[in-house]
Amino acid sequence: MKKGFKDGFLWGGATAANQFEGAYNEDGKGLTIADVSPGGKQRMKLLRDDSYPLEIDLEKYTYPNHLGIDFYHRYKEDIALFAEMGFKTFRMSISWARIFPNGDDAQPNEAGLKHYENVIDELLKYNIEPTITISHYETPLNLVKSYGGWKNRELIGLFEKYARTILERYASKVTYWMTFNEINTGVLGSFFTLGMRNESLNNNFQALHNQFVASAKAVKIARELNPNIKMGCMSIYATMYAYDSNPVTVAETMEENRMFNYFCNDVQVRGEYPTYAHSFFTKNNVVLDVQPGDLEVIKENTMDYLSFSYYMSTTHALKTAEKEESEGNFFGGTKNPYLEASEWGWEIDPVGLRIALNDLYGRYGVPLYISENGLGAVDKVEEDGSIHDDYRIDYLRKHISEMEKAVTIDGVDLMAYTAWGCIDLVSASTGEMAKRYGFIYVDLDDEGKGTLERSRKDSFEWYKNVISTNGVAIQK
């Protein structure tokens, strides 16, 4: 049994450029897929519809990410607040289109490179370690329209050029990197991940293969530049339960779990395609274009650590069973009668996080990094300006407590925890500001109205205390 979290544990928060940075068309930045994604609960439905043009139409839609919370101009103020909380690390992403506006430009945009250098230097000033995600739902729009997204192998070379550019610029300052955000959502054909809509199963997995190769090449570049760099993959993990003890249900759950929770991690951490994936490809007539050298570069450039987001579990029942569906869960599934749900219908399962940590560490044996976890909720500002978000504290307390059990009782090697949306930002799934995650409140509504002033929620002081005691004060 270990005693608490390790010395040097990386407490912090996580964000994505397209959800909080703003300045979507300033200083030479090009358009990304996020810039043409409208706000509102219809966002995901529209993006799945091929008739929806990937263009900006201000007469029909709002685009909250165009302003975000204006971190681009306010980063010094926000980083000072992160430092006040005691952050040890801050997970951020770099927008590809801020470096190469079209994704295939001959030369990088110096204004974009300088901006991120300024942000990194500001973090380091407060001894906050940057953790950088190279691609977080921010594929340049031109690569979708002109190349067809990630099913096109040309994106491997373009991504390699982009990765080399930022790694060469920041390798001496940034130790922790991740390649693709929640890469395994590509198994579901996610537009945000692959830059593709309603493609065939074959094209989805071809796109993932291309990303595996691109990711491995980024790892190779990083290690050549600085052997001390730590490279990680990043997936979204949903602890999966069989609804009942029917062996058929259990077997189906196992198959879903392998393809969603393990497949991308197996390739990137173990360095090879697992046998069950080959069986899946045969069953579903998936034939990949694997070029000479692809498998070798994947095998030779595996990850130093495994990062994952955790928000919910999912429960699988046979399709023939008459069970109530779980409406809000990103992964669908059957409603779990033992779990409560958030305002957005996301089932809350803290114990599932402990299960996830044990599962992943037992399978891969590399350090784990919880890169996203948090509760999206509506926050009420009182007359005196205070924000009493006890529901958020309760959610985080229960999840971090289970995380502590995984470390102290189960012996899991956990290196970091970065709460998602540590400062309020635009929701990826709904394009709303109303769905808030942060310890820091931003005065901005779904229509882009507000002062953008920052204020501390009750959870701000609670998390500050957790960090200062290295997790001892979780229950206070």
CATH topology: TIM Barrel
The CATH architecture comes to Alpha-Beta Barrel
**Multimeric status of the protein:** single chain
Q: Helical segment tally?
A: 15
Q: Helical proportion?
A: 25-40%
The sequence of SSEs as H and E is: EHHHEHHEHHEHHEEHHHEEEEHEHEEEH
Query: How many structural domains does the protein architecture include?
Result: 1
Which structural category do the helix and sheet elements fall into? alpha/beta
- How do the strands of the widest beta sheet line up side by side? 1-2-3-4-5-7-11-12
Quickly name the level 1 CATH class. Alpha Beta
How far apart lie the N and C ends?
A: 23 Å
Q: Give the overall pLDDT as a whole number.
A: 95
Low-confidence stretches: none
GO molecular function: beta-glucosidase activity
Family: Belongs to the glycosyl hydrolase 1 family.
Protein name: Glycoside hydrolase family 1 protein
Keywords: Glycosidase, Hydrolase
Summary tags:
476 residues; 8-stranded parallel β-barrel; TIM Barrel; alpha/beta; two-stranded parallel sheet
